[in-house]
Amino acid sequence: MRTRSLIFTLGLCCIASLAAPTQIVLGTSLIEKVEPQPFPRKLYGRFLHITDIHPDPFYEPGASQSSACHRADLNHSPPAGYYGAPYSSCDAPFSLTNFTLDFLDEHWTSEIDFVIWTGDNARHDNDDDIPRSLDEIYDLNRAVAKKMEHVFLSKGIPVVPSLGNNDIWHQNRLSAGPNEIFEEFSSIWSAFIPPTSSKSFHQGAYFSVEIIPDAVAAISINTLFFYKKNHAVGGCNYADPKDPGNIHLDWLEEQLESFRSRQMQVWMTGHVPPSETKYFPECYYRFVELNLRFQDTILGNLYGHLNVDHFSFLDADEIDLSTEISSSSTIFETLIADFSEIPEPLEDTHYDNYAVVNVNAAIVPDPYIPSFRVFTYNTTGLSGFAKDVGSDPYLQTIKATQRRRALNHEQVRAFTEPKCEREEYRNSWRCQFDKPRHSDSESPSRRNSLWSPTGFAQFYMPRLAEFDQTHDPEFELEYMTFPLSRLHPNQEAQDITNHQYVIPLRLLPEELRQPGAVESVYTPYELNDLTIPSWLDLATRLTKDEELRLKFKEFMYMGGVEE
Questions:
Q1: Mean pLDDT value across residues 157-163
Q2: What would the 3-class secondary structure string for 517-535 be?
């Protein structure tokens, strides 16, 4: 292996002793301190979700994909492209990472309110000839963090990072803090973590931040404490209150109680999405119960890790002792099987039994192609800038209404199951959930109202292999959840001068920039919002409509092979 001391940059400098990469770099110095802009920002009602960047300093354009795109091989596997190798097991070249963040800087920083960034900012450990080191992982994370500061934070846009399973060494293995890893990331992410969260971050790399002061918060959870592949933790066993997962969930419960007492809304964010197959069973049961208990406070869940665009539900049935864990072979098959079990008709569905999980596709073209997502949310009725929202008269009226309703919308989860008397179940978390659940049909997660998610647009790079030094890459719209009617002002509108477009017209395909279209391949779902009832409606339609189901599968795998 070629080694030498070098400086590799991702729009900035990080010093490490590594094999020498041959990639173009940008020149923003690591030493340069990024200060948030003091001027007030208006609320646009949009935010960015970006995940799994995986920059690789050893990526070599033209190298063999069978070598993780690190060197030429004799087996004639496809060569690595300049901006990445689509549908491969290679990580991202700096050229792709830099282009993506520069594209977001140019086209989206004037249109969004905050950024959810859900981890994995180092390469995979997939090349025995160039093993990863802890210093390299730190350097790559520091480089991406500085670039995120430069692109977003310098313009007053809050950024909420989460720790990924490839952001640590050894991969997937993480013990309770305080420890060196948490100490290092507290430095790397010092610009993103508020001082009030310093204690929790040093303890477990989890924190909360008010992304819209006194109105909306994001809670960044450390999913590695719940992840089955992490053999350094105990899996949230009820009999072990000192287990890192239990301590984390105790903290999460306190955070949700605190935000709810202030009538705030919360986005849950992290790296590994919650599921029966990914989380330790007892961690999963507790996490599901908290999501259901605070359904009137949690707007939704945002994750990465799987690199597959999809949604799923956290379901009250999953914390029922009579429920068996399903086992289907692919994510798609599992989802459709789960969706087929949703009770019908939906009008009779107990919506308080569900929470929604959104998993975003990745920037890294492994195993598909680069992608990011822009969400929209309801800001109707507000008049101020982001920093002044907390004192907005309309918000104060909404909060007063929520306080009154909260007194009348609690249901107690009573356990009468005989199984809880048996010794093998007595110490399961599923037999301990007896606290009131806070559900409300008028809450933003259930009805389109202030702060409700209303839709998203997915952008991707389907022609990645075509781009090189002489052909600049492009992100294109893949699809949107909105109906066509939402893209333009109502025809009866008298004044459209200040109309807030859900997606800026300049970023739409040309065919959608003018009103009048009656159908489009870009709007297959036609969802009026992203509340729990709307997601359940889409899920049931996917089980009945084969054409829509195939389209959903196409979006999941972006034309690649189902895994």
A1: 98
A2: CCCCCCCCCCCCCCCHHHH
H-helix or E-strand containing 199?
A: helix 198-204
The CA radius of gyration of the chain, in Å to the nearest whole number, is: 23
Give the angle subtended at the CA of 493 by the CAs of 389 and 497, to the nearest 5°.
Answer: 60
Question: By CB neighbour count within 10 A (0-12 exposed, 13-18 middle, 19+ buried), where does 79 fall?
Answer: middle
> Is pLDDT at 66 greater than 60 in this prediction?
yes
Query: Helix, strand or coil for residue 267?
Result: strand
CB 2 within 8 A of CB 19: yes
At 536, which helix (H) or strand (E)?
A: helix 532-544
Q: What is the DSSP string of 164-177?
A: -TTSSSSTT----S
CA distances from 232 to 176, 225, 265, 272, 474 (A): 9, 9, 33, 16, 42
Task: Give the tokens for residue 229.
Answer: 């592949």
Q: Would the pTM of this model clear 0.90, i.e. be above it?
A: yes
Q: How far apart are CA 535 and CA 463, in angstroms?
A: 30
User: In whole angstroms, what is the distance from residue 160 CA to residue 150 CA?
Assistant: 14
Cis peptide before 509 (omega within 30 of 0): no
Residue 338 · residue 331 · CB < 8 Å: no
Non-local (6+) Cβ contacts of 284 within 8 A are: 226, 274, 275, 276, 318
DSSP H or E run through 180? helix 180-188
- Beta sheet of 114-117, edge-to-edge order: 159-161, 114-117, 46-50, 371-377, 453-460, 476-480
Under 8 Å between Cβ of 446 and 532: yes
Please tell me what DSSP assigns to residue 419: G
Residue found under tokens 């400098």: 13
Tell me the two tokens of residue 366: 């492994």
Phi, psi dihedrals of residue 17, rounded to the nearest 5°: -100, 105
* CB contact burial 63-72 (16+ within 10 A = b; e otherwise): bbbbbbbbbe
Element (H or E) spanning 492, and its range?
none
- In the chain, how long is the greatest CA-to-CA distance? 71
pLDDT in tens, 5-51: 334 455 544 433 333 343 433 334 444 555 555 557 889 999 999 99
Distances (CA, A) of 93 to 54, 64, 311, 478: 9, 14, 28, 22
pLDDT at 288 over 90: yes
Q: Going by DSSP bridges, is the β-strand pair 298-303/354-359 parallel, antiparallel, or unpaired?
A: parallel
Taking the CB of residue 133, how many other CB atoms lie within 10 A of it?
A: 14
* Rounded alpha-carbon distances, angstroms, from residue 17 to 90, 92, 132: 22, 20, 11
Residue with tokens 């798609």: 332
Helix, strand, coil in percent for the chain, rounding step 5: 30, 15, 50
State how far the Cα of 103 lies from the Cα of 266, in Å rounded to an integer. 28
